[in-house]
Write a structure and sequence with these properties.
Layout: E1 6-15, E2 25-33, E3 40-47
Length: 60
């Protein structure tokens, strides 16, 4: 696993509507590197189960 420092981060969950799709949902994790205007895809995950997003906030 790599650790990436990013200017922006995006999680896209897409429901696949094509009848013979590989899975029902596609989850794409991408980011914009610091100092650059580009979008880099880190990973794509396919699943038949509805994904959920968990957000944790550390309190100090």
């Amino acid at each position: 696993m790599s650790v990436i420092k990013a200017a922006k981060c995006e999680i896209e969950i897409q429901e696949q509507t094509v009848p013979d799709a590989g899975a029902r949902y596609s989850v794409v994790l991408s980011y914009e590197p610091e100092g650059l205007e580009s979008k880099e895809i880190i990973s794509i995950v396919l699943t038949d189960t509805l994904p959920y997003i968990k957000q944790s906030n550390e309190k100090r």
